[in-house]
UniProtKB/TrEMBL annotation:
Domain DUF2520: 145-286
Family annotation (PANTHER family): CONSERVED HYPOTHETICAL ALANINE AND LEUCINE RICH PROTEIN (PTHR40459)
Protein name (database record): Oxidoreductase
Natural source organism: Nocardia aurantia
Domain Putative oxidoreductase/dehydrogenase Rossmann-like: 2-127
The organism's place on the tree of life at top rank: Bacteria
InterPro entries: 6-PGluconate_DH-like_C_sf, DUF2520, NAD(P)-bd_dom_sf, OxRdtase/DH_put_Rossmann_dom, TM1727-like_C_sf
Amino acid sequence: MTSSHFAPARLTVGIVSAGRVGSALGAALERAGHVVFGVSAISDASVRRARTRLPESRILPAEEVAARSELLVLAVPDAELAGLVSGLATAAVVRPGTIVAHTSGANGITVLAPLTELGALPLAVHPAMTFTGHDEDLTRLGNACFGITAADEIGYAIAQSLVIEMGGEPVRVSEEHRTLYHAALAHGSNHLVTLIVDAVAALRSALVGPGLLGQPLVDGQPGGLPERMLAPLASAALDNALRRGPSALTGPVARGDVAAVSAHLDALTTLDPRLAAGYRALSLRTAELAGSDPDLIDLLEDR
């Protein structure tokens, strides 16, 4: 029996709340043929997003959204999820048989226990994607994997069907490994942003001066020369890392060039000691992965 046999062809969907993730998933579910009848939206930004992405949906209190849903999507920040679930359970507004899916990466289905006890079917459906609130969110969902956790095979079949309908790829994540799963994704995405922002800042300082025809070389705005210089290099490095793993490592750390790395640390410390600390920490990890010269590892540990 295929997963599609477990999921109704058309669900009445409610979303709490209409943030970047919730509004994007709501639009994807509508595109798949489901009906998003209502969303909760408190902030001005959420209201605007709901009206733009889900113009046929009513903006309603969370309790009313929950009471009328066949599929209830809880798309609130991780830290707010437990409180929301507790409040909905206390109000007893979720009907038995309601599919309740949250989008938190850090949580599995345990956090939904108060609603499960009332007869809800619990799902954790986390899109492994960053959301900006702009049009590209919906396009990116079509290439995203979703970490799914359920209580049983029927739950997994429903979660898989919903993800496939939204254009994503479902990937099972066990309850006990949700935190590790989330940590890995945060490390690989959020810290990549920090790394690139720091590298751009250092490049911007290095390139200050007159350019061609006497024009300023760096204007200090995003999308300038530092970003254009770094983009193909960073894109190639990411592609190589995903396809070749640690063997993709190049550069002075991988080569064990103690003098070059020491000079880098001096230059970066002069620019910004915090940036230098980040370089040192990542260089140490890189040296360990590459099996670099012990003298280089000693330098990085001592600094």
